[in-house]
Design brief:
The complex is a heterodimer of chains A (315) and B (352). By secondary structure, chain A is mainly α. Helix content of chain A is 75%, strand content 0%. Chain A has helices at 2-29, 34-39, 45-55, 61-73, 87-122, 127-141, 144-156, 180-209, 212-219, 224-261, 267-276, 280-308. The chains are: A mainly alpha (315), B alpha/beta (352).
């Protein structure tokens, strides 16, 4: 097991190297002179040169990459062109906000998705099943930013909602430590994920229910409820775990729109703001951090297989 | 046979499946008796309805199947009329089943010990610890070496033969009255097959249970069974004690089956197969279902379904040749064997 984890960790190195190359290339893939872009159109020659100097753009590309990589490995992602603060500091304060959002959203997605998926599978081809799947399809197709706006309109603005829903009204102060402010963004992100998990759970459960060992369990006199939860679910969860992992990773990176809509000062907002102000080091930094986390989450998913399915030979 | 207590009697069982092409009568009027402590073999080709009969007894035929008629009398009560809750208390407790596919019949995410314990905790109210100890005993009983270690193994760590032993241990956990073995040796190597058969027989002798042995292998029947029900196209076509069946099979189909077996006691150059194929369940012959393939079939056979007739020994056969209505030759030649017909012609041949 330890051996496997070490080997998988080593395997992530080339992946992460690839990520750094892509992230590094960002600046050079933009048409035109990056320094000019950062400085803005009306900037003087002197300013552009200063920025070029600061970004290290005078050196050859391999040398630039080498420096970028060595610095990144030491936790130095350069400093923001806009604020002058180190990128790591810029990210640091906002990183946990996004992680928190992604974490709660994953919990919502898993809870809603599993329940809906199991109910759907147990009552397959009934009205309940069809209704759940239609709602799930709706949740899947609904863009986050639109659903978020709808939620705001329904629950936060306007006063036609019943009084008891007051408690989830958004506060103008933005993302804080108060849990009620978490509900709407978490619902926005979580429901989309729940839809995917529900559909995955359902199809996986339906497949498992047909297996011989389920018939064995029934022949043993196990009740239908235990057949579902003890015998079928544990087997059916294996593919679902992958999806949950991907969802969590996706929430980290994909919270950009949700954070913008709900004015949450997370990584997503930081990225958007950096892109808007052409703050290349910050863009590079956020993309790199999100990518690294994505890779690590996938590693965790792979390892968690071992606990669900003893057959997977990790070596 | 009538003197023996009957523990299970299946009467006119009908099970149908809904398919896109319409309803299929997989089991169509099956009847047989299982005497207490004895073994009955249910033989037949693939698709003859053997497994569905077995699953119908446990009411495990799945959502697209339905048992539409008949009775399954276990100790006098009709299983088809029991509530699901009561039925569940019988499954794995008084009536248990082992399946054809040992490789896929065990849950991959639980240890064999956990899977055996489950039945014990469910039906015998054992604690986890008691069930664990009993599981080890059961594994010893079915001949698994170092059972105290094996009990913690996951199914994938065991060979097919070992897994079938685990399945047997699991089915015997609660000392069932009836064990239904659905082709338990089909998926195994020949040497392992013999061991498993031996094990089931031995355990039956020791535990005194009754066994329903489903197989397509007449060799297995000869070795393990006391009675045989031959199934063809969803019906029992011959029911007899095993001795009579092998000495003098009555039904042309059974004769054909036995003739198509390789034998080592006589010189044979060629096996004689039964011509034709099993009829499609969507398109059953009108009369006797074997009539399109039967070498002795007459117009009567092709137009009217024969009934299952019982003789003085309690053996049964579904064939016009042995009925009063038979209107063909009095001596019928079937796959090189001669059978004396009953009915009009037979009266002159057989003295009363």
């Amino acid at each position: 097991m330890t051996k496997y984890i070490i080997r998988r960790l080593l395997q992530t190195i080339p992946v992460l190297l690839g990520v750094t190359i892509l992230v590094f290339s960002l600046m050079h893939l933009v048409p035109g002179d990056p320094a000019q872009i950062v400085a803005g159109e009306g900037a003087s020659e002197q300013t552009v040169n200063n920025i070029r100097e600061r970004l290290g753009l005078n050196e050859s590309i391999p040398v630039q990459y080498g420096k970028f990589l060595t610095n990144a490995l030491q936790g130095d992602l350069g400093s923001s062109v806009r604020s002058g603060r180190p990128v790591m500091d810029e990210i640091g304060s906002r990183f946990w906000v996004t992680v928190e959002l992604a974490f709660y959203s994953t919990i919502v997605a898993v809870l809603l998705g599993l329940i809906a998926g199991i109910v759907s599978a147990v009552r397959h081809y009934t009205l309940t099943d069809t209704s759940i799947m239609v709602v799930a399809l709706f949740g899947l197709s609904m863009p986050n930013f639109w659903f978020g706006l709808l939620l705001i309109q329904w629950f936060a603005i306007g006063n036609w909602m019943p009084e008891w829903l007051e408690f989830i009204k958004m506060r103008p102060s933005g993302w804080g430590d108060e849990w009620r402010q978490v509900i709407l963004p978490v619902l926005t992100l979580g429901t989309g994920g729940a839809a995917i998990i529900a559909r995955m759970t359902r199809s996986s459960m339906l497949e498992v229910i047909e297996q011989d060992y389920i018939r064995t369990a029934r022949a043993k006199g196990v009740s239908e409820r235990l057949v579902t939860y003890r015998h079928a679910l544990k087997n059916a969860l294996i593919p679902v775990v992958t999806v949950v992992g991907l969802e969590f990773g996706g929430f980290l990176g994909g919270a950009v729109l949700t954070e913008t809509i709900f004015a949450i000062n997370g990584m997503g907002r930081l990225t958007i703001d950096a892109i808007r102000t052409r703050d290349f080091p910050v863009v590079q930094g956020t993309v790199l951090v999100i990518s690294v986390i994505f890779v690590l989450v996938n590693l965790l998913v792979d390892i968690s297989y071992r606990f669900l399915n003893k057959r997977i030979d990790l070596n | 046979m009538t003197t023996l207590e009957t523990i299970l009697e299946v009467k006119n069982l009908k099970t149908t499946f809904k398919t896109d092409a319409g309803d299929v009568n997989a089991v169509d009027g099956v009847s047989f008796k299982l005497p207490k402590g004895k073994t009955i073999g249910i033989v037949g080709e693939s698709g003859s309805g053997k497994s569905i009969t077995a699953l119908s007894i446990l009411r495990l035929i799945g959502s697209n199947g339905q048992t539409k008629g008949g009775e399954i009398l276990y100790k006098g009560q009709d299983l088809l009329k029991l509530s699901e809750d009561k039925m569940r208390k019988l499954r794995g407790n008084e009536i248990s089943m082992i399946f054809q596919e040992p490789m896929t019949s065990l849950n991959p995410v639980y240890t064999v010990g956990q899977q055996i314990s489950e039945a014990l905790m469910l039906h015998q109210n054992m604690s986890k610890k008691e069930a664990h100890l009993r599981s080890i005993e059961l594994l010893t009983l079915v001949g698994i070496p170092s059972p105290d270690k094996r009990v913690k193994n996951y199914p994938f760590e065991l060979s097919g033969g070992m897994r079938q032993r685990v399945m047997i241990a699991m089915s015997l956990a609660c000392n069932p009255e009836i064990l239904i073995a659905d082709e338990p040796t089909t998926a195994l190597d020949v040497t392992i097959q013999a061991q498993i058969l031996e094990l089931i027989k031995d355990l039956q002798d020791r535990l005194g249970m009754s066994v329903i042995f489903i197989t397509h292998d007449l060799g297995v029947v000869a070795e393990t069974c006391d009675y045989v029900a031959v199934m063809y196209a969803g019906q029992v076509v011959e029911y007899s004690d095993v001795r009579s069946l092998f000495r003098e099979p009555k039904l042309p189909y059974t004769i054909g089956l036995l003739k198509s077996l390789p034998r080592h006691d006589i010189e044979q150059t060629k096996l004689e197969p039964i011509k034709g194929n099993v009829p499609s369940p969507y398109n059953m012959p009108v009369g006797c279902r074997f009539s399109p393939r039967c070498p002795a079939a007459t117009d009567l056979c092709r137009t009217k379904m024969p009934l299952l007739e019982t003789d003085e020994k309690g053996n049964q056969v579904r064939c016009w040749i042995y009925s009063e209505e038979w209107n063909g030759e009095s001596e019928v030649e079937i796959y090189g064997e001669t059978r004396i017909a009953k009915g009009r012609g037979a009266k002159t041949v057989l003295p009363d």
